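We treat protein structure as text, and this decision shapes the records that our systems exchange. Because each token names a local backbone shape, the row as a whole describes the fold. An entry from our holdings is shown next, in its original layout:
>
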Amino acid sequence: MNRLPHLHRLAVRLLLIACLLPATALAGSKPAAEGNGEAAAKPEFTLVTLNLYHDRDDWPRRRVQIVDELRRLRPDAIALQEVLQHEKLQNQAAWLANELGYDWHFVTTDPPSQARRYGNALLTRHPVTERGETLLHPLEDHRTAGRVQVQFEGRPLNLYFTHLYWAPDGGPTRAEQLADLLAYVEATSGDAPALIAGDFNAEADAPELGALHEAWLDAWGTLHPDADPATSTTLNPAYFDRYQQVDHVFLQRGRMQPLEARLLFAEPDAQGTWASDHRGMLVRLRLPDPPAADPGPASGHGAGHAPGR
């Protein structure tokens, strides 16, 4: 009887066992960080807010550096103010969204039948589950606030965006608009965390923004409490004769943690063209841990189980 085939099969089996043993040992000795949910990285979200300066100062040239920077950063969401469209201009938010591959939501007081429409927008690369908007009083100022709820890491997140009254002495008007905005947030946010981004035309600690201070956190001020006004201004010094930070991202206290806040478009392009008369702001934040999964009732005849029929 020829024993060579039998010996050959035995050798193959021994070789397979030898190969599997190291993999089995490694599988049973994963680093603690991989198997420990508490050590896993918590989800982080990035948002950019930017006043586009509508179509002034060569928009076709300005939009090139804007879209290039946003494409490089790839933020989770982008809040835009002074968004314009008319007969000869595609909606600026729509153009940027198409270039970036983002969803977009544009809000305005101008009717859809009107060719020239002016307002605010939010772009996002995450699934949108809800959209909304509200008017801000006084109505003759033609201001709005918008809302987009996205699904991020399997959880809902509310993104609110706005642009308040512009005049330096318009504090009472901004306070009225902010009251409308916060009432809208209260009515629509539900249990999901929320942030508010936009051009508030006031410093974060201005009296007219006082209604925000108890429940909302200024992301920039939290991370840069002693920042030099000359380097933290969001009004582009090439256009304005004053240093003032008027563009903000406010986070719900206790529900989000700011990790980074920095200014964008602080330099012109190689031809000397500025992206906007405002600087943009990028904020990176950490969201809270997801709610613990409900383990459900115990097996057997625990509570919640109907008796057998």
